[in-house]
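To assess whether the prediction recovers the assembly geometry, we first specified each molecular entity separately, as shown.
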Amino acid sequence: MDDMAGNKTEQATEIKETPKRHLWNWILCAPALTVLVFAASGPLLIVLVYSFLAPGSFGGITWSFSLEGWFRVFFSRDIFDPEIVSLNTAHLTIFWRSISLSLQTTIICAILGFPTAWFIATRPQHTRNIWLFLITIPFWTNLLIRTFAIQEVIRNQGLINTTLIRFGFIDTPIQMMYTDFAIFLGMAYVFLPLMVLPLYAAMDKLDIRYLEAGYDLYASRWQVLRHIILPLVKPGFIAGSILVFIPSIGAYVTPRLLGGGRSMMLGNLIELQFGQGRNWPLGSALALTMLVLVVGALVLYIRTVNREEEPRHG
Amino acid sequence: MTRSAFRLTLMSLAVMSASITAANAQGVLNLYNWGNYTPPELLEKFTAETGIRVTLTDFDSNETALTRVRQGGHGFDIVVPSNNVIPVWIEEGLIQPLDLSVVTNFDNIAPQWVDVPFDPGREYTVPWAWGTTGVIVNTSLYDGDINTSDIFLNPPPALQGRVNVIPEMSDIITMAIYAAGGESCTTDRDVLRTVRDTLVSAKQHWIAMDYGTVDAYAAGDIGAGVYWNGASMRARLQNSDLAYGYPQEGFPVWMDNAAVLTDAPNPEAAMKFINFILEPEHAAMISNYARYSNGILGSEAYLDPEMKGAPEIDVPDALVGAGRFSESCSAEATNIYTQIWTELLQ
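The predicted structure of the complete assembly is given in tokenized form:
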């Protein structure tokens, strides 16, 4: 009897509680959902709608449907003969420049970040936090200020050139500002911590006994690195690459200030349409194209990386 | 940056308005102006004389200012747009006519700045500052004629690879149009073909397309470039080798103008401020700060000694005719210019 009654009440409370708990779940989720819907999807939806409208005469939009914005992302009418329609090579060149800059930045950060993270991960436990702390120091300062700081170091009258000249290594300053070198230096400096931190997190968990086992089985240093360490820290590489690639594809402050801004980045191109170009629909369409590109690249990347991994598990 | 400044202003505004309602019936005046353009001592003096406190918010382009004010809820009283966009502000009813019963210093405006094409008879706006867009050259590198747009469109060998061009589409395209013999805002395809070809072939000689800091010119990082007269003067005061040239083919003249917003929370204070900056002494403060002329009669007496007769301020008589007021171009023209610009920077 007692058991039966107990079961009954248990059942009853379960049935009673489910909708209640359900409701509570929703209420507790409400703040996060509101933020997501209004702060993330809302603006995106507005951008989507704007991309299908006609431009206003001085910025803004007019409420009439138009595919001109999307058309001009990919195609251009010849300025001197509107009959000639061709692929918009200027836009494609700019797209490619941003993508390749991001890829190269990601690779540079990975090459520099791996030894850095390894160094930190192999320090005694109590000093690791100090090293990590040092890695995060640049985050305390605004991006713009850090970029200007790099300018001070590499400009013609800057730290490096004046030092080299003073010690007689060179006579005339080396032109470093406004070169590709300057762009990569700036990008790598800004984004390196985003690669080091996930790599460190992956290496921290790495069991050193696997390496010992490898050496015991007469593996060379290279084989240990290639077949044990790299596969085990791969999740760190993936996370780091994503964290570096996404922000660098939209980067335009660093390329503009250090590279001299002679060549546009995707971010500059979009900014131009909303500012001096006064073509918001084209700007919106370009922004969405960039979004699709980034998401597409990520999906592709994660899929390829996972596919590579499969045989090893099997 | 601008957005956080805006938020900060709103916050300080809220705090201030709470404390002020009790202590000060005069209220607050919210000024919306270009960055690094408003002398702090000007605002301090205004507060000392009227009891009205002033908050200052920066904008970085005419487009930014227009977009924000169009959206409403900005809380600004005064805005300082450039001449070429003033017609848009007037047509859209964003700024209100001057109240001449308060703006009693109106007659201080120099006659040539009263009947201006962008605001005939000055019904809405008063001058803040005006200047020119020309070229700056480090004369230790090149001592030839600098009053030509060849400095950046066809640089002499000594300057090749050392030229900086400001990334201002309308200024650069306009100067290239003048050099090609066209009128600003033209849609003439032959002129624009020359413009595109000239710019594309000139670009190989440019080292950067940056706003170019005064320091970079003074330190010699950049040898020459397209620059504004006031900024050039600030650079020359640091490095006497720098000189400012007025391209004889044609150069843009611009003027930034103060106006009271239609939905200003405190229009009375705003009109008082407009009247305040028309005092020669106060107009001179603005000039001494940003190194631009102001268009107010009698302000010369209060200018810093280095401003008087400065080559960046006094346009040579022979070249005055080459200066042309910048305009806001039609959507069609802007569309073509954007395409040329994108092609140039691709």
